[in-house]
């Protein structure tokens, strides 16, 4: 069930603040996505390659598809032809594969680097040192068919709003630290953090792209 009222209110609020809304449509049917499209929404986020590849041809071609899940190198080729922005890049290996597929397609693929900010155990995301290594690597400079446009992160799943705020603040701090590191394929300007439960805090802490699912499409089973 699409909550059109929530969508309109949220869209108005985010537009005023200059924040991009990525509507996270994982597990939700194409008919729900079409409903938001008809209201003007264009940016949609999906987590699973196979699901995205199935949905994409069934929906209008001017959709901007964001890949927000954990991407395996061997699956990059399936989404490379049409993906608008890949959010969760957290290794040199993955960056290399995205560049390789982009070269084949003669296109540039924009990406965000995922930074690990939560206190919870997670396999995904770079720490500050790994981020530095990736941004300054000679190999990265040679990836002419990718563009590193910003950072992405996820806060801990907790009701402790101070902890969430502190985690987002860490991400913002890293973005500021690297903001002046501008090269041919690096310019960090997009900050993708904030979901249904914490987007207000995220925006207060400097997010300019939020990824929102359940608030718009209802809870997932
Ligand atoms: C599912 C998901 C979201 C959206 O979560 P909601 O709480 O439903 O808004 C955002 N980002 C990522 C990476 C997700 O996997």
Structure notes:
By secondary structure, the protein is an alpha/beta fold. The chain has a single domain, classed as Alanine racemase (TIM Barrel). The chain is built from 10 helices and 8 strands. The two termini are 13 Å apart. The mean pLDDT is 96. The modification N6-(pyridoxal phosphate)lysine is found at residue 26.
Q: What integer is the average pLDDT?
A: 96
Q: Sketch the major β-sheet.
A: 8 strands, parallel
Task: Give the total of beta strands.
Answer: 8
Shape: globular
Count of domains:
1
Q: In CATH terms, what is the fold-level topology? A: TIM Barrel
Report strand order across the widest sheet: 7-6-5-4-3-2-1-8
Supply the helix-strand structural class. Answer: alpha/beta
Could you state the CATH homologous superfamily?
Alanine racemase
Terminal CA distance: 13 Å
Question: How much strand?
Answer: 15-25%
Integer-rounded radius of gyration: 17 Å
Order of helices and strands: HEHEHEHEHEHHEHEHEH
Comma- or semicolon-separated keywords:
221 residues; alpha/beta; eight-stranded parallel beta sheet; 8 strands; 40% helix; globular; binds pyridoxal-5'-phosphate
